[in-house]
């Protein structure tokens, strides 16, 4: 205990000290965890002074309007310290009542175990999976810098806010912290300020046994501005924040030496405070040590008054509104565009753009890799959608993600719409989520489909938060050829489809690619994956009904007269193989229907009548064809159906030879059609 | 071009220079890529001098016996530079003929696009997904250090070899490089020496626009020994290697300034040499520039002679065999044990140990979390299996992975059998694969099931290489409760099952946990995941037949008289819920069978007769129950069946309440049984 404590009651009440204000956070955290008998008191108790100084003196926010566009963004990357954030939100005046805190970690409480994205109460992003808040923060800070470059005018900095990140040892051990912080240093995100809770303790104990990094030196190597301070000393914290804000160019790391569970009389400084309730006795001891006499969940009024930020917050936003008013007068078109962007409304002419893109897709006649079709789409929609912000994890020429006329962001010039993210799939994906959460952008980024593995939990987090991020995954099957099994996706298609609230499109040709891109842009309640071939695929003929139905995710691409004897379902590059087989069997007088299924999620979301019209229950002879695992297709073909897929690893060789070797041929599909018809006739 | 070139022909042939030897690698790489019209010439051409010096003067290996236990391990983490490795293997005398190199990247060639683990030709690990070779290398070096501590005796260092890693910009941008290298520095893996191909170029161009790290400083922050040299200067390379070897304590980074595609007359130093053939003209120009007159795939005899390492390799191994002979004389029991470990033979008494563990599992009567059952198993098998090397990604007290009597490895004392890997799921998993590849160990490591997402591609690589690594994934469903949706697995169970050659066990109680652990230890052709509950589950009664059948992965746990009217399939914590429902329906006079399916992979691998005996095709009324996505279960229940699962995210609350909220109740299973029976009667 480095600071004197004195009782907070007494008449007249003295002005609360900073330490007393911080202690409110400590007591709320330990009491809520104790009541739930579940949670993490240690980090909130160790970081309370930092939080108090930041939120009281520096954070630009308005509890009455958590959506204020120019607010500072605060991210608790060590999300297990959730009670710290709930305490801050409650105390400063967000609509998060003490009843919610009393119900911490109970079903229905907004005070969930880990913070869950909810702007109505000021939670900027969902955290808990370590390191990802840091990468989200890099995305937030990048979005701010990009948007400022695009919209700010002399004397009118309408975009001018900081991104503040709290993180712990776990975040900095995770690899994603390297990817994100290396990128942030390179891009000189000077308004990103991160506080490292350097308490030397993680769940397994004292970290020096497994994490001996010189972290300040590591961040200097990334080009960051680094300070090391006593994280329990409010004056030092304030000084460090001022220095970090004064540093215009480099992102800042404030390395805060703290004591986990500070205030707990016997457990402070130990892993015992990390992830469980302190226990009744230890809580009582902490109350005594902190000089706290109020009962659980009661905050003395003078402390509450000192914490409240509603008036200051309103004033802060009012100043900005005044600025924005002047901006609107001076630059009306820009102001309108800024509002459109921040409201996430597509441009008025977007439907025209989308139609033109579709027409362009339909006009393609030659065989073309869908990654090239995608490039052509981007060339059309990129210039028409200023909010589109692209990139690739160092596979730009392979992913075909750089559209014609796109301007590349560099460390020297941030006014652009494309970023070379480097070989950092996870960091890119989580940063993209941060960009989407910030607002003003629709981010897309490319890599090979196989390397979605590297970024998987970022996709999950974007899905959980319903964020519009678009991943362009090329090289989508063994058809990629020579790079071999390490690069050939097998399980990825189906395993990505399993992520709730994520949409995967695997178009068969340029037309379906156009539809996929339109769906990706318009689908604003979750991530979309646009999954594309490396190799050329033929263009599919389709009638008006088929064309209109592509956007339903699954549709009849080629039909027969009368009730089909068999239905073939195919996706992506396998549609053309399936079509050839279907044509042969039709030519032999059999009634076979071909269904193209570029997006199972959209198809499943159609009404029952439509689904029945495409896949009539009465037709049980069915064949699914996809160059990926068979697992999920049994649901569509039934136990008696056939699935032509691949449930083992691929091989290095010419793409066409590899496809043939593993059975993706019209001959094989034809055989399966006959087998399934025989099976269902039995 | 920094060194003079002179023709390599002439009589009498002069002794080849080092540069001339290196140029063989360059020419082979550019010619093979040109012939395949696919591949990566740039990195082999840039790193050829480093490779030549290392393999010629330092690498301890015997091309005639690529399995020699005390060989140095060489890892090409930048696996796209595969032609460099193939050239080295061919030239030094491994059984990798020039015909294979001629067929580089063609179906059936052992010279695949990326190196594929194959000890018969000296390929230590499969690489390509960037950064993972680095983490494999950390595992190799750790295994060497552990094994040396366990077996070496004074004057008899039978385990004494280096781990050499080549890596590029991509590897060092990837987050896993941070996780692995931070751990390696902490653990003082002094015999790990890494060469960084610092050529400033990645696929998107000059890396300074997206990767501005001061990499030497970064590695100093990890506690590494760091040198920066001209990677085209053989003398500097040799000096740096000697200094790295002299450094006993810290791992070494040799930061090699190189030029990508060195030797190509117009494209050297540019991204154009990275990932495609140079083109006929450029290849011709390079031949001229390098003074190379031999036709493609022909190596002049004096160069081949100078490269050949067969004699020196045999001599090196013979010296070791002599040492090992003395060791055997002095320490016969240790020598026998060392041989057993390196041959990956389980101890003779292992079946007894496994039987005792099973008996202990059966003896449990009280409700118990399967993570606790697993801890009890580990307490029994850990001390009996010296090759078992455990750990956790900083969740030891939650994963219950530290067995009684285990000795923890520390930076100061490496003689142990448990490692705190830190919050580094990906690094841990890939390092474990390296440990398994090295030989002498069966590694296991724990984290929460959800965070398998972070390590997914490492699981894939271990599966692709058929390595025995065991992942202990606790907190396996929404039943974990308060930590909420970020921590509650939903899609993970099914998405992991999709990875080819990976085995997932989700035991229902202590008995099934014992069987799962035995299977994990004995399954030596791929990774096993042992997936465990956080919450308590009741113990299941089973007869002798059921007990004997657990190891088949799926079996009849509770049967009815006669042909079942309905079959219920359940896994893990849902087995007890399903059993309660089955008992109720049976009590109401219906014939219902309960199948426990802890391991779908093992069940699927049974013969058709066994599978039919458990799931008779005639019984179409089926219900599957698992607290995960429904996706894969349709294959087992058919289109008309029912699946009780969860296809959306969970919620923070008490585990039992969350399970109930989302329908994992006996009532709900009972309802589904009735529905499915009605459905199939129609």
Outline of the structure:
Chain A has 27 helices and 20 strands. The first copy, chain A, is of the alpha/beta class and about 675 residues long. Chains A and B meet through helix 6, helix 7, helix 8, helix 16 and helix 18 of A and helix 6, helix 7, helix 8, helix 16 and helix 18 of B.
Any descriptors?
alpha/beta; 5-stranded parallel β-sheet; elongated; disordered N terminus
Structure description:
2 copies of one chain form a homodimer. Chain A is of the alpha/beta class and 682 residues long. In chain A, the strands form 5 sheets. Chain A has a 6-stranded parallel sheet with strand order 10-9-11-12-14-13, with helices on both faces. Chain A has a 5-stranded parallel sheet with strand order 1-2-3-7-6, with helices on both faces. In chain A, strands 16-18-17-19-20 form a 5-stranded mixed sheet. In chain A, strand 13 (503-505), helix 20 (510-522) and strand 14 (528-531) form a beta-alpha-beta unit. In chain A, helix 12 (310-330) packs across helix 13 and helix 15 packs across helix 20 (510-522). The first copy, chain A, is elongated. Chains A and B meet through helix 6, helix 7, helix 8, helix 16 and helix 18 of A and helix 6, helix 7, helix 8, helix 16 and helix 18 of B.
């Amino acid at each position: 205990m480095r600071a004197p404590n004195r009782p907070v009651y007494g008449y007249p009440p003295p002005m609360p000290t900073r330490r007393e204000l911080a202690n409110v956070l400590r007591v709320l955290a330990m009491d809520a965890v104790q009541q739930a008998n579940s949670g993490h008191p240690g980090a909130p108790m160790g970081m309370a002074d930092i939080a108090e100084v930041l939120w009281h003196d520096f954070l630009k926010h308005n509890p009455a309007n958590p959506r204020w566009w120019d607010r500072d963004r605060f991210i608790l990357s060590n999300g297990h310290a959730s009670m710290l954030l709930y305490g801050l939100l409650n105390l400063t005046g967000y609509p998060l009542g003490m009843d919610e805190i009393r119900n911490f970690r109970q079903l229905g409480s907004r005070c969930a175990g880990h913070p869950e994205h909810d702007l109505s109460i000021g939670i900027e992003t969902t955290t808990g999976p370590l390191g990802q808040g840091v990468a989200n923060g890099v995305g937030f800070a990048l979005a701010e810098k990009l948007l400022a470059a695009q919209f700010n005018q002399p004397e009118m900095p309408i975009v001018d806010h900081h991104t503040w990140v709290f993180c712990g040892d776990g975040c900095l051990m995770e690899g994603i912290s390297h990817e994100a912080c290396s990128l942030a240093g390179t891009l000189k995100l000077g308004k990103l300020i991160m506080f490292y809770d350097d308490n030397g303790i993680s769940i397994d104990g004292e970290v020096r046994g497994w994490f001996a990094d010189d972290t300040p030196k590591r961040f200097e190597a990334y080009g960051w501005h680094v300070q090391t301070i006593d994280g329990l000393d409010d004056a030092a914290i304030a000084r460090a924040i001022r220095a970090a804000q004064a540093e215009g160019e480099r992102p800042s790391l404030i390395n805060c030496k703290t004591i986990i569970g500070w205030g707990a009389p016997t457990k402070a400084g130990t892993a015992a405070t990390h992830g469980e309730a302190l226990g009744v006795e230890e809580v009582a001891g902490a109350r005594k040590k902190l000089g706290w006499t109020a009962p659980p969940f009661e905050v003395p009024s003078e402390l509450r008054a000192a914490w409240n930020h509603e008036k200051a917050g309103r004033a802060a936003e009012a100043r900005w509104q005044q600025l924005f008013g002047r901006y609107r007068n001076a630059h009306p078109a820009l102001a309108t565009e800024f509002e459109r962007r921040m409201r996430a409304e597509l441009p008025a002419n977007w439907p025209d753009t989308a139609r033109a893109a579709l027409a362009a897709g339909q006009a393609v006649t030659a065989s073309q890799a869908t990654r090239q079709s995608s490039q052509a789409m981007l060339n059309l929609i990129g210039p028409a959608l200023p909010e589109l912000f692209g990139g690739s994890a160092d596979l730009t020429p392979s992913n075909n993600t750089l559209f014609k006329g796109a301007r590349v962001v560099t460390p020297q010039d941030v006014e652009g719409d494309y970023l070379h993210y480097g070989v950092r799939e996870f960091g890119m994906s989580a940063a993209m989520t941060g960009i989407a959460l910030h607002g003003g952008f629709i981010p897309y980024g490319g890599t090979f489909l196989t390397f979605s593995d590297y970024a998987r939990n970022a996709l999950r987090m974007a899905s959980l938060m319903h964020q519009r991020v678009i991943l362009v995954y090329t090289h989508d099957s063994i058809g990629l050829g020579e790079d071999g099994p390490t690069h050939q996706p097998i399980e990825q298609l189906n395993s990505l489809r399993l992520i709730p609230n994520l949409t995967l499109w695997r178009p068969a040709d340029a037309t379906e690619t156009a539809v996929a891109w339109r769906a990706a842009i318009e689908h604003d309640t979750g991530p979309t994956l646009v999954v594309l071939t490396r190799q050329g695929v033929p263009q599919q003929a389709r009638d008006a009904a088929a064309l209109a139905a592509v956007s339903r995710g699954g549709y009849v691409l080629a039909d027969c007269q009368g009730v089909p004897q068999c239905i073939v379902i195919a996706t992506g590059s396998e549609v053309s193989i399936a079509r050839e087989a279907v044509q042969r069997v039709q030519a032999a007088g059999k009634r076979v229907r071909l269904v193209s299924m570029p997006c199972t999620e959209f198809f499943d979301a159609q009404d029952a009548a439509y689904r029945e019209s495409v896949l009539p229950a009465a037709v049980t002879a069915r064949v699914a064809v996809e160059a990926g695992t068979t697992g999920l297709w049994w649901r569509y073909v039934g136990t008696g159906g056939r699935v032509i897929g691949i449930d083992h690893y691929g091989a290095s060789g010419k793409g066409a030879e590899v496809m043939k070797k593993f059975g993706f041929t019209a001959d094989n599909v034809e055989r399966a059609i006959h087998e399934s018809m025989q099976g269902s006739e039995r």
